Amino acid sequence: MKVLVVNNMAPFVWGGAEELALHLQKNLIAAGHQSEVLRLPFQWAPATRIPSQMLMARAFEIWNVDRVIALKFPAYLVRHPHKTLWLLHQYRQAYDLYDAGQSNLPPGQEGEDIRSLIRNADNEAVSESRQVFTLSENTRKRLNHYNGLDAQVLPQPLNDPEIFCGGKAEGYIFAGGRINGMKRQHLLLEALAQTSSNIRLVIAGPADSPADVERLARLAETFGLNDDRLRIDARFLPRAEIAALVNGASACACLPYDEDCLSYVAMEAACAGKPIISTTDSGGVLGLARHQETGWVVAPQPQTLAEAMTQVIAQPARARDLGASAKTLWNSLGITWPRTIESLLQ
Questions:
Q1: N-term to C-term CA, the chain
Q2: In this predicted model, what pLDDT tens digit does every residue of 2-37 receive, in sequence order?
């Protein structure tokens, strides 16, 4: 079959969604299908332009492919008679982030009108899809709560699991992935400042904006965190470098706010047998991060995170045991690309 993967693109931004689309294409080809990725440009600011971008996505009528697998808003608004929706997440600024006061939609009636437009478009896109999956139970519940619609949970597989083979702990805590306010790397810096000098932290991944890196740099300077304790590598790292950092870590930290999925950071850590440090409000990550079972899950506060980071280094045997449990849990889930492709193409 000819299978088209449809996703968004923001210029010079690359993260988990882009990796998922790319590996979905690769594994569709490995399964014997023809596949390409169609990336529709989307920029969420200013929010007043979102409706015109929704209209552009909706205007696409793709008939020369057998199946469409659509991933993100507004790309999943494309029309096709056999469209499967694998929902990474909706435009959360119109849903839970709106309720939490973290939306970029304008205040007043204009914002309400855009929010209603997004919700109605989502309802139509979901209803017309042959199958609807979400990456996590967290995302499924959000869809049900705000739209009254249901879906099956189909977590994303880990890409290149063979390179996350684990290794000797080298005494640092690794926080990988995109750098931005929602991923809350700043909490780790604030926590690091409350630990002893033998605790080291490595943050590595592409930043959404220069301001995100500047924020971390200012915190590091404020707290006097030198290169011996803190390393920030704000770039898109090759997979081999990411794997080396995970495999050598004493623990991996992943504390986004209300994450939509298990998260690649947590999956990579678990696959490598590393304990996971996360927070009680990190959403889908908690499918792998379990307090005192596979790592530490604490309140999203510098003090509690500092305590968890200290325990990682002070209790290496305990950290190894929690990491082994994380690996056992990950393996028990049986999330693989062949099984995922089979589900998406039913």
A1: 12
A2: 999 999 988 877 777 888 999 999 999 999 999 999
